[in-house]
């Protein structure tokens, strides 16, 4: 059960998360249902907070909201002392709705609108990460017209040209990327930002990708960024006060995967920054890290009810569930692989090989191919671990389906933190 939340146990052959019987939760709240374990969430926050504090004192851990955010989770991250990495006006609005400290909010994104930038200025976000020349120009104009004597703190996002050896769709730090300034363009951006009386250029940002299981790409990117910073210092007097290395540390989606621990990650990052800064003769900057998946991924479990079963003799046995790509498009989008258990008969030994299919009208709506599970019948409850990250963020109303409910569990108590959508919700914005 190592893929499940840290509080997971088995009692009377049934799956228990955070002291709550998963089958009982399915009965109470219906399925599909997403269960988040509060203890695991808080423990992951502590691992980052304490790990980096041990190895690199001057840091801020900003949770990457794109992995998944709602108001209840934002409040937890506030209580745990984290910041937030937001990438849209919507994520910023969620942060503001729970009175999240704006000085701990970093605003990323490759195509921020004028309205989003103005909102960020008005509410006083801690830092805006500038992604391209268009944004730099627009932000400078907005800042100059704001009438505020306070300069707006920015970072310049660079593309360090590092291949993190992950899925093509998850690589964000290559030269050929929609994100960030390639280094030649970054130099010009630094010059323009330093000349602006309205902007305070604090440093550099990059993010090389997601679901990375090797420390080497992280270390290589830091060396590239610090070398570039040193060159900019020599040529233009640029001073690196902050280095934001993004996120990207992966998690295990299968028993055999062994990603680096947060402790090893924080130690490696700290060591390479300190060593490289010493080598080039600059003061170590404040470090910003933006983990998402590695905080929230393991904390979330998706719960489905088995329905139609189709056994094609000699070919494949399909077990269809009441969710699928509407709440988890990752298998169709990235070829993501998941594990599962049958929550109402976890320890049954008589197993068969099945493919767990979603209910949506796409042949590619397959959640798990060829998995060995106990003999299944309609009505059985299937639990899929490691669904805390990106599943709900990427959820849709495809086939006019309803997005699932979410519960937060702790010490045997379950709290609904997002109700299931209704058909009225589905049509609320329609004009007829």
Structural class estimated from helices and strands: alpha/beta
CATH topology of the largest domain: TIM Barrel
CATH architecture of the largest domain: Alpha-Beta Barrel
Overall geometric form:
globular
Percent of sequence in beta strands:
25-35%
Helical run tally: 12
In which range does the helix fraction lie? Answer: 25-40%
The CATH superfamily of the largest domain turns out to be Alanine racemase
| Computed CA radius of gyration, to the nearest angstrom | 23 Å
Low-confidence stretches: 169-173
Describe this structure in words.
- The protein is α/β, with parallel strands linked by helices.
- It has two domains: 9-30 and 299-427, Lyase, Ornithine Decarboxylase, Chain A, domain 1, CATH 2.40.37; 38-296, TIM Barrel, CATH 3.20.20.
- The chain is built from twelve helices and 21 strands.
- It has helices at 22-29, 38-55, 71-79, 89-97, 114-123, 133-144, 183-195, 216-236, 262-280, 293-296, 330-334, 423-427, and strands at residues 9-11, 14-17, 20-21, 33-37, 59-64, 83-86, 105-107, 127-130, 152-159, 181-182, 199-205, 242-244, 286-289, 300-312, 316-321, 341-342, 351-357, 366-374, 381-384, 405-410, 413-418.
- The strands form three sheets. Strands 4, 14, 15, 16, 17, 18, 19, 20 and 21 form a nine-stranded mixed sheet that branches. The protein has an eight-stranded parallel barrel with strand order 5-6-7-8-9-11-12-13, surrounded by six helices.
- β6, α4 (89-97) and β7 (105-107) form a beta-alpha-beta unit.
- α2 runs parallel beside α9 (262-280).
- The protein is globular, with a radius of gyration of 23 Å.
- The model is unreliable at 169-173 (pLDDT under 50).
């Amino acid at each position: 059960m190592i893929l499940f939340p840290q509080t997971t146990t088995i009692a009377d052959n049934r799956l228990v998360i955070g002291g709550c019987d998963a089958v009982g939760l399915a009965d109470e709240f219906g399925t599909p249902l997403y269960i988040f374990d509060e203890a695991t969430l808080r423990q992951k926050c502590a691992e980052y907070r304490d790990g980096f504090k041990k190895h690199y004192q001057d840091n801020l851990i900003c949770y990457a909201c794109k992995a998944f955010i709602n108001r209840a989770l934002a409040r937890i991250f506030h209580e745990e002392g984290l910041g937030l990495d937001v990438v849209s006006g919507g994520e910023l609005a969620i942060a503001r709705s729970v009175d999240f400290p704006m000085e701990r909010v970093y605003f990323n994104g490759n195509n921020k609108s004028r309205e989003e930038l103005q909102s960020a200025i008005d509410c006083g976000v801690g830092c805006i990460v500038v992604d391209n020349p268009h944004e730099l120009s627009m932000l400078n104009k907005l800042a100059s017209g704001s009438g505020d004597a306070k300069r707006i703190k920015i970072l310049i996002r660079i593309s360090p040209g590092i291949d993190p050896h992950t899925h093509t769709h998850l690589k964000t730090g290559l030269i050929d990327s929609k994100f960030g300034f390639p280094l030649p363009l970054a130099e010009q951006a630094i010059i323009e930002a330093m000349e602006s009386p309205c902007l305070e250029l604090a440093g550099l940002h990059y993010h090389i990708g997601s679901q990375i299981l090797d420390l080497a790409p992280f270390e290589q990117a830091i060396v590239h960024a610090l070398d570039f910073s040193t060159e900019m210092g020599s040529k233009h007097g640029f001073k690196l006060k902050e280095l934001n290395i993004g996120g990207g540390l992966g998690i295990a989606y299968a028993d055999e995967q062994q990603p680096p621990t947060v402790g090893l990650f924080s130690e490696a990052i700290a060591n390479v920054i300190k060593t490289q800064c010493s080598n080039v003769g600059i003061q170590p900057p404040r470090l910003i890290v933006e983990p998402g998946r590695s905080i929230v991924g393991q904390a979330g479990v998706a719960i489905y009810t088995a329905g139609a079963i189709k056994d094609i003799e000699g070919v494949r046995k399909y077990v269809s569930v009441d969710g699928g790509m509407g709440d988890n498009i990752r298998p169709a989008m990235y070829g993501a692989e998941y594990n599962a258990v049958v929550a109402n008969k976890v320890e049954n030994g008589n197993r068969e090989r099945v493919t767990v299919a979603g209910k949506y009208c796409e042949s590619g709506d397959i959640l798990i191919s060829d998995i060995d599970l106990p003999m299944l019948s309609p009505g059985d409850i299937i639990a899929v671990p490691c669904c805390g990250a990106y599943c709900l963020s990427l959820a849709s109303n495809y086939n006019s389906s309803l997005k699932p409910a979410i519960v937060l569990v702790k010490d045997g108590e379950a709290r609904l933190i997002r109700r299931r959508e209704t058909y009225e919700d589905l049509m609320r914005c329609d004009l007829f």
